[in-house]
Amino acid sequence: MTIAASSPTASAAALPGKGVGPLLRAWRERRRISQLELALRADSSARHISFIETGRSRPSDEMVLRLAEQLDVPVRERNSLLLAAGYAPRYPETPLDDPALDALRDGMERLIRGYEPYPALVVDAAYTVVAANRGIAMLLEGVPEELMAPAPNAMRLTLHPEGLAPRIRNLREWRGHLLAQMEREIALHRSDRLRALYEEVAAYPVPGQPPGAEPADPVAYFALPLRIEHDGRLLSFVSSISTFNTPMDVTVAELAIETFLPADQATAKYLHTLVG
User: Fold this and answer.
1) Which of 32, 79, 123, 219 fits a disulfide with 89 by CB distance 3.0 to 4.6 angstroms?
2) Coil vs helix vs strand at 228
3) pTM value surpassing 0.90
4) Is the CB of residue 170 less than 8 Å from the CB of residue 153?
5) Contact call for residues 226 and 260 (beta carbons, < 8 A)
6) What CA–CA distance (Å, rounded) separates 211 from 35?
7) Which residues are CB-contacts of 202 (< 8 A; sequence separation ≥ 6)?
């Protein structure tokens, strides 16, 4: 699969009738940081932070960004804070197929191809698959075409009863892991699009599995594995997610590269045999 343009995620705009102060206070409370601690981190004073949060003082655009940095506010939300304070957004949202991102796309393609025969893919903030290697294509063999086009979604592909779900032998554990992951993202980004996706996939029926589908395994896994059947064999993977450091573009900030590492020697040997 090659890089595809991703559609922008709906921005979590400033709440109606609220300025930047209440929004910053909400982020501070979410991070469980006191006004004094935030002031120390941002080289300010607790009095000034209090005045900003109550609307008695209008922060400069640089102060908004400094506070957002200390509160680890996502890049898209930093634009919302700037708008709420009366300033222009600082971070662009460049379409992934824009020529300006050619080097980024090429780099991600090389990265996931170089990871073969192990599976790897790139998703956006709504889990739309924008790139995937042959290892992912191998796992998706037999998935209905309607789930693959026009823009496949990683959560739908995994949890849909006609997708990978019937093949996952520890589906309840893996499903719980994915839903918890989505809940954390929703709490961080407040995305209506992501919330709708969560409600959709959480409502999917869990396919019935034959007795003994999740037997006790003698392997002592070092992380929760994805245990999935392929061509009559049981494969085990553990996943790792990578994002870009210090992104200056909303699109880049919301990309994630997920790689699947074999969790046992049998899985690694089988994948290398397929390639060989």
Assistant:
1) 79
2) strand
3) no
4) no
5) yes
6) 55
7) 179
